[in-house]
């Protein structure tokens, strides 16, 4: 979400759209059910806060900002909303509409409008590839149930990069690769100072003192335990802010190969590397 723009500056709107993202249907219809839902900015690593209660160091770091962290995320029990997979989950729709009503929107004649002005709730998703467009179309189809109109615009690479540079978009799809030693790049991605700088990777426009404080803590960490706790604390603040709709990832990588090809029993953390394989007898 580009939180610099209305209506995404309102966390209730962002949470409503996260609720309406029907991963179960998208995973089945587009990806043969092969993906798992992403729950963390540092998914599948020891730096992830998902499934882990905050430790004592995290709680000390987060104490001044405790109202910025969801209790269930602090406890490590939070999971992204899950639909019943039917494509017509009324419970998810009702939950989203309650959030939107609180944010000042109502449904009139099957169209979601701003209650005060009558202006329809509509936004654009900027696409770069056909694969992205296919995902966005499926998402947009689900949003129609809430009366939300979504337009999808695919542009060439030069225009796409120019619009990202100047934050000229409502919503995009993006991924931020992470290592097991995140550092200064976290400021460039999430820091308040970067939110207004053209060309930064703070596409969401995050301006959150708690985020800045957690980044400062991880950069100042003196040992491994302190570092891991600081990164998990950052993860909890980011996930609590609902700045993105977490997508999905493959839990495994499948490779078809000749039976003569051999590989190390233990592969690298980044996935298989063909240049470490060899021809057997």
Largest sheet composition: 2 strands, antiparallel
E-strand count: 8
Strand order of the largest sheet: 1-6
Instruction: Give the low-pLDDT segments.
Output: none
Distance N terminus to C terminus? 53 Å
Determine the mean pLDDT: 95
Structural class of the helices, strands and pairings? alpha+beta
- The helix/strand series, from N terminus to C terminus, equals HHEHHHEEEHEHHHHEEE
The percent range for helix content is: 25-40%
Radius of gyration: 20 Å
The share of residues in extended strands comes to 5-15%
Secondary structure tally, helices? 10
* Global morphology: globular
Structural notes for this entry:
The structure is a single chain. The chain is α+β, with helices and mostly antiparallel strands and 281 residues long. 36% of the residues lie in helices and 11% in strands. The chain has 10 helices and 8 strands. The strands form 4 sheets. A two-stranded antiparallel ribbon has the order 1-6. The protein has a two-stranded antiparallel sheet with strand order 2-3. The longest helix is centred in the last third of the chain and has 17 residues, at 224-240. The chain is globular. It starts with 10 loop residues before the first helix and ends with a strand. The mean pLDDT is 95.
Sequence-ordered SSE layout with sheet pairings:
Elements: H1 11-20, H2 23-31, E1 35-37, H3 56-62, H4 71-75, H5 90-102, E2 105-108, E3 111-114, E4 122-127, H6 130-143, E5 149-154, H7 157-165, H8 185-190, H9 209-220, H10 224-240, E6 248-250, E7 261-262, E8 278-279
Parallel strand pairs: 4-5
Antiparallel strand pairs: 1-6, 2-3, 7-8
């Amino acid at each position: 979400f580009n939180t610099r723009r209305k209506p995404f500056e309102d966390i209730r709107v962002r949470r409503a759209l996260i609720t309406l993202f029907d991963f179960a249907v998208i995973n089945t219809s587009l990806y043969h059910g092969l993906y798992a839902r992403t729950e963390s900015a540092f998914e599948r690593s020891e730096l992830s806060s998902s499934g882990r209660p905050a430790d004592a160091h995290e709680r000390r770091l987060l104490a001044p900002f405790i109202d910025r962290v969801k209790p269930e995320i602090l406890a490590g029990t939070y999971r992204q909303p899950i639909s019943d997979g039917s494509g017509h989950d009324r419970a998810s729709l009702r939950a989203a509409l309650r959030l939107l009503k609180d944010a000042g929107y109502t449904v009139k004649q099957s169209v979601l409008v701003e209650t005060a002005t009558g202006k329809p709730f509509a936004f654009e998703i900027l696409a770069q590839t056909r694969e992205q467009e296919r995902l966005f179309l499926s998402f947009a189809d689900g949003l129609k149930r809430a009366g939300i109109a979504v337009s999808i615009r695919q542009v060439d690479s030069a225009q796409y990069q120019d619009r990202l540079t100047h934050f000229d978009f409502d919503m995009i799809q993006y991924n931020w690769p992470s290592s097991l030693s995140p550092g200064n790049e976290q400021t460039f991605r999430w820091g308040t100072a970067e939110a207004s700088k053209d060309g930064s990777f703070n596409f969401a426009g995050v301006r959150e003192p708690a985020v800045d404080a957690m980044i400062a803590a991880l950069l100042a960490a003196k040992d491994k335990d302190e570092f891991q706790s600081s990164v998990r604390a950052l993860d909890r603040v980011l996930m609590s802010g609902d700045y993105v709709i977490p997508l999905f990832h493959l839990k495994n990588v499948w490779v078809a190969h000749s039976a003569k090809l051999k590989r190390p029993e233990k592969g690298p953390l980044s996935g298989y590397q063909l240049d470490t394989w060899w021809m057997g007898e």
